[in-house]
Write a sequence for this structure.
């Protein structure tokens, strides 16, 4: 079955739904999403969304811009950052007018708290459920505008013909039927890939499917080696503890009860950017100063007082009890760094149009926004609260650009056999005989990625990881499904997700191996210094006949020349 | 970490109309490590014992609401419930009651989502917007705090006997959504929304059974929201 | 279908509260105030008393309306089709009116 929409949006998180609200204006529009919209992982964002509103002390966009560029270790494209921070205040006001229930100051303004790497109090929040309330509000707006959703549809491939995007092929998970979605404009907003790692704050659904689809279609992916580890995940699950906790004043303590951040970032302490803080925690753990010598340290909220904790961090209080059996009012929470965010992704220009090479050639009809995209506003390390902001600002931009572009895009032909090809592929996967277990391959991949391509990287383990991925890819070809049914075959979904993981983890590792320097979240123990002379550039990886091929493109620097990064 | 392990029996509801029109229970035996949640166990069973077991899951941190199911007779999120806290060595897992079952633990929530759409679930204002945020005091914001924290997991509606009798009933989740806007100081469609819930299948179908309060995994109180709505509807008709 | 649910809801609560008091009074009078020694004359005297007549009339009307509305609520829970609802409504109202007139006749005409 082929559906026709002017705009086909993939992903119903903040970016996808924000894009839909704009794109609906100029024609029919639908949103395909793997999980029901309100179950998207944007909802798990806790701490806040950044904007220089100045509700809690003076602030302005150049300061926000500088913090973001410095946070990115100068790998961010500054024209893109400028748009992000300039549009931030109006974007927040716009969200508020849509109904987002932000927490308030006594004067009735949107409340703002401190966050890592931001030198001003600019995180607008709703307790520790900021992503959740924005996600639900955007869903409500989509209902208001009667946007057509296809929930629980897993997109399987991109339909490109003559270099022009024609749509996608997707599977209705509940029925198992394969559908074609023919669109003049296709917007990818498919989120991140934290599931490549064993310890992650990400949802099971965050398996980077969108990135893998783009890669398999022969288009490049940018800066895949830049993976953010959040300093504070619950131990042992890796579930997120918001940076907002530290924004409110929480301490990180080692086994000796020492606020060790003073040795790593004396000025910013616990509110240093995430790469710095995560490395500090990992160093303490590696050097035996984890609690009781274990693989975790403590996050102490107690001095904040019961009222503040209950009011500002209610979710953390609940999650700490449920996942670590710790009453955060009475005891410190065990925490460890956790894979959190992918700075890299589908390369786009500042209008959200996907680019197909290092020269910036646009792929007609194809757009990307949110975590799956790489504009790049985060460079090598994202600041907290900038991801929700990027999703909303660039989601809206992508939607608006689609509206501008649509009149110039003609309906072309739907390539014959596009759906049938995918149907055959899926059938082959389901019917395949073999003796390998999908879960075993996935576990090995996640564990080895954690070990060999985590916070600290070096040549040896990275090379070993490449071999492991190669072996796992080979084993994958013999992985067998026990579920041969069509209806709600969740095992089939899992194997398709695993296929994605195996595709792009190779790019992360190869990218990390190539980038012989340390920048932001990418840290090479064998190259501990940043190397602007050679590596102030974005990597682009595309599928070649014999594996990934790398290319590079320059960073756009407008206002702030790179200098030493200290906190 | 303490690695003391224990064997548990999982009795899981199975239904796949593609294979058999009849539902059944399958039993699985699983070694449960300390700290494992019901969802962890379901995943372990799916990974190593029966790949055909179907259930929804995503965030596994109690915010997306995908894995709401009936565990030992109570609706809850599988992801935030530690097996060791359940008491007993047998864990019975059923799909959310009151909804049609698609397969195993996956239920059809289409009607549930449609019910939300019946209460005008978005902020409505006819007066012009200022350039800045609409003012709202912390006290006004507090009024809707529990309602905005709802994750739409469906546990409350699924536990409501009034909903079991009559699936056209708006039921707790949609009424909580109505409350979220009716009591939002920025909203201007209070009257219209009250008329929508003052319906044959609306507010008055609530029999104050309070199952919803017991079922809510986020400890919200839809029953209190419904009570407030009743008073508000009464005030409006005076 | 639009309802005036709030008034009925309020009435149901108020009648419930009043009925609670009346039932207690009824219960105490009938079962704990020398019931076993009571003669026909005592009953006659009580039913001739205008205060008791008023009591019984209120009791009668509130009890029937409360019960009738309760039944109607149950019909609303289970009945989907409009025709079934209308039939049930007619049955409830007819039964209510019948019982009310029966009660009315008894209370008003019972005298020595």
């Amino acid at each position: 079955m082929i559906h026709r929409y002017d705009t086909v949006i993939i992903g119903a998180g903040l970016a996808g739904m924000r894009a839909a609200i704009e794109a609906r204006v100029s024609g029919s529009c639908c949103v395909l999403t793997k999980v029901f919209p309100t179950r998207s992982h944007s909802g798990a964002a806790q701490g806040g969304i950044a904007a220089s509103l100045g509700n809690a002390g003076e602030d302005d966009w150049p300061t926000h811009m500088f913090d973001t560029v410095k946070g990115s270790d100068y790998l961010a494209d500054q024209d893109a950052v400028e748009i992000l921070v300039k549009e931030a205040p109006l974007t927040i006001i716009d969200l508020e007018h849509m109904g987002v229930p932000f927490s308030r100051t006594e004067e009735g303004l949107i409340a703002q708290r401190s966050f890592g790497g931001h030198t001003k109090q600019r995180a607008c929040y709703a307790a520790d459920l900021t992503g959740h309330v924005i996600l639900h509000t955007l869903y409500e707006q989509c209902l208001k505008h009667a946007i057509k959703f296809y929930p629980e549809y897993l997109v399987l491939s991109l339909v490109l013909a003559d270099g022009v995007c024609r749509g996608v092929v997707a599977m209705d998970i509940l029925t198992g039927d394969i559908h074609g979605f023919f669109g003049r404009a296709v917007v990818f907003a498919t989120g991140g890939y934290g599931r490549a790692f064993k310890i992650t704050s990400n949802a099971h659904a965050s398996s980077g499917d969108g990135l893998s689809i783009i890669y398999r279609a022969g288009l490049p992916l940018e800066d895949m080696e830049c993976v953010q580890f959040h300093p504070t995940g619950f131990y042992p699950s890796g579930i997120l503890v918001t940076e907002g906790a530290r924004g409110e004043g929480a301490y990180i303590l080692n086994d000796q009860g020492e606020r060790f951040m003073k040795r790593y970032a004396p000025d910013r302490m616990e509110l240093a950017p995430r790469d710095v803080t995560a490395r500090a925690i990992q160093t303490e753990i590696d050097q035996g100063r984890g609690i009781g010598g274990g693989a975790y340290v403590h996050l102490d909220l107690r001095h904040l007082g019961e009222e503040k904790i209950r009011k500002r961090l209610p979710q953390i209080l609940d999650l700490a009890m449920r996942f670590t059996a710790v009453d955060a009012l009475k005891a410190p929470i065990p925490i460890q760094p956790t894979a959190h965010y992918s700075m890299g992704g589908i390369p786009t220009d500042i209008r959200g149009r996907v680019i197909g090479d290092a020269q910036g050639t646009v792929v007609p009809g194809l757009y990307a926004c949110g975590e799956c995209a790489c504009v790049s506003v985060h460079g090598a390390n994202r600041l907290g609260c900038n991801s929700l902001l990027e999703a909303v600002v660039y989601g809206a931009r992508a939607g608006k650009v689609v509206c501008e572009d649509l009149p110039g895009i003609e309906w072309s032909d739907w390539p014959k056999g596009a759906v049938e090809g995918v149907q055959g592929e899926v059938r082959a996967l389901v019917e395949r005989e073999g003796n390998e277990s999908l879960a075993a391959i996935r576990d090995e991949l996640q564990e080895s990625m954690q070990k060999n391509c985590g916070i600290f990287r070096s040549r040896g383990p990275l090379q070993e990881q490449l071999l492991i991925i190669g072996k796992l890819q080979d084993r994958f070809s013999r992985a067998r499904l026990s579920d041969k049914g069509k209806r709600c075959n969740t095992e089939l979904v899992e194997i398709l997700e695993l296929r994605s993981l195996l595709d792009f983890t190779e790019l992360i590792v190869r990218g990390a191996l190539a980038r012989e320097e340390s920048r932001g979240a990418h840290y090479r123990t064998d190259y501990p210094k940043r190397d602007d002379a050679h590596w102030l550039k974005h990597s682009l990886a595309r599928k070649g006949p014999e594996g990934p091929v790398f290319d590079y493109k320059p960073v756009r620097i407008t206002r702030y020349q790179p200098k030493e990064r200290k906190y | 970490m303490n690695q003391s392990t224990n064997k548990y029996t999982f009795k899981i509801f199975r239904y796949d109309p593609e294979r058999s029109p009849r539902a059944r229970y399958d039993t699985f035996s699983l070694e449960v490590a300390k700290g494992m949640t019901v969802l962890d166990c379901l995943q372990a069973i799916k990974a190593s014992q029966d790949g055909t077991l179907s259930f929804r899951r995503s965030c596994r941190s109690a915010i997306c609401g995908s894995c709401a199911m009936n565990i030992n007779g109570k609706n809850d999120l599988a992801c935030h419930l530690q097996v060791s806290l359940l008491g007993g060595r047998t864990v019975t897992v059923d799909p959310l009651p009151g909804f049609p079952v698609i397969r195993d633990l996956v239920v059809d929530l289409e009607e549930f989502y449609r019910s939300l759409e019946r209460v005008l679930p978005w902020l409505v204002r006819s007066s012009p917007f200022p350039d800045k945020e609409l003012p709202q005091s912390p006290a006004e914001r507090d009024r809707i705090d529990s309602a905005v924290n709802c994750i739409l997991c469906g546990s409350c509606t699924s536990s409501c006997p009034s909903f079991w009798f009559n699936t056209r009933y708006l039921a707790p989740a949609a009424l909580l959504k109505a409350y979220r806007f009716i009591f939002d100081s920025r909203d201007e469609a209070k009257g219209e929304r009250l008329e929508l819930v003052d319906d044959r299948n609306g507010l008055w179908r609530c029999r104050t059974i309070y199952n919803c309060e017991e079922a809510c995994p986020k400890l919200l109180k839809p029953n209190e929201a419904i009570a407030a709505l009743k008073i508000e509807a009464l005030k409006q008709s005076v | 279908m639009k309802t005036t649910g709030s008034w009925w809801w309020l009435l149901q609560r108020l009648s419930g509260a009043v009925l609670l008091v009346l039932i207690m009074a009824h219960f105490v009078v009938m079962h704990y105030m020398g019931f076993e020694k009571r003669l026909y004359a005592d009953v006659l005297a009580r039913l001739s008393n205008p205060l008791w007549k008023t009591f019984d009339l209120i009791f009668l009307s509130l009890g029937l309306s409360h019960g009738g509305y309760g039944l109607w609520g149950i019909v609303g829970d289970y009945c989907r089709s409009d025709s079934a609802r209308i039939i049930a409504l007619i049955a409830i109202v007819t039964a209510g009116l019948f019982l009310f007139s029966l009660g009315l006749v008894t209370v008003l005409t019972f005298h020595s």
User: Anything to note?
Assistant: The radius of gyration of chain B is 20 Å. The longest helix of chain B spans residues 222-237. The domain at 110-237 of chain B is CATH 1.10.1060.10 (Fumarate Reductase Iron-sulfur Protein; Chain B, domain 2).
